[in-house]
Amino acid sequence: MLIVVSPAKTLDFETPPTTEQYSQADLTVHSAELIDVCRQLTPMDLSSLMKISDKLAGLNAARFTEWTADFTPENAKQAVFAFKGDVYTGLDAESFSETDMAFAQQHFRILSGLYGLLRPLDLIKAYRLEMGTKLTNGRGTNLYQFWGDIVTDKVNDTLAAQGDKVLINLASNEYFKAVQKKRLKGQVITPVFKDCKAGKYKIISFYAKKARGLMARYIIDNQLKDVAELKAFDTDGYYYCEAESTDIELVFKRDEIFK
Question: Taking 50 as the threshold, does the pLDDT of residue 67 lie above it?
Fold first, then answer.
């Protein structure tokens, strides 16, 4: 099975990675086209486009200006260690064994507005460009149009290489929209995580994001190959809820934790 997740806004390019292994991203020729578009924007343009502060806009304008297509461990970092959001807290890639990392390199992918689709060890440079950004470019008016069939084709190639053609969607709606489901040559399984608050079960963003990382870690740790095996996921108190699940959506609940 293939796991897909979203990237994170929070980045860490200061902490040394826990492995010297790395790979080169496959779609950087397309990234370079986006960089050329972004370089034409002023910090004020970026602030308005991305709805970020002037300080962050200035930082990212500088990143776009300085970006080059050469990626080395000295000027870039492996994607799975560079992203530091809630999903990546749950994933805890820093504690991967060599076997874990090898499995993840084959079965784990990160969707990205700038890089399209990344393996965990693919080197990236610091950036801010969310998939939902309405960036006018030579292929359309947003990043979904820019990436078009490219990300989906890459996902299909990876699924075909794995043979089982099962995609575990642990990405946000914003990012998973970059995968064209009608063209996808595989079955999409989406785990949903609900926490109990005040006696009601609901999706709580912070906990759901971390749970996606925990689920990805569970798959990697156990090298799962069968969707049915996902139902045994019980990390951090979650349990499978058969009554609310379907063939394509697996619901996991966690009881009251807000005490």
Answer: yes
CA distances 82 to 48, 85, 91, 118, Å, are 25, 10, 13, 12
pLDDT at residue 163, rounded to an integer? 86
Q: Where are the domains of the chain?
A: 2-254
In this predicted structure, what is the pLDDT of residue 257?
A: 65
Query: Quick one: angle between helices 205-222 and 98-107, nearest 10?
Result: 110
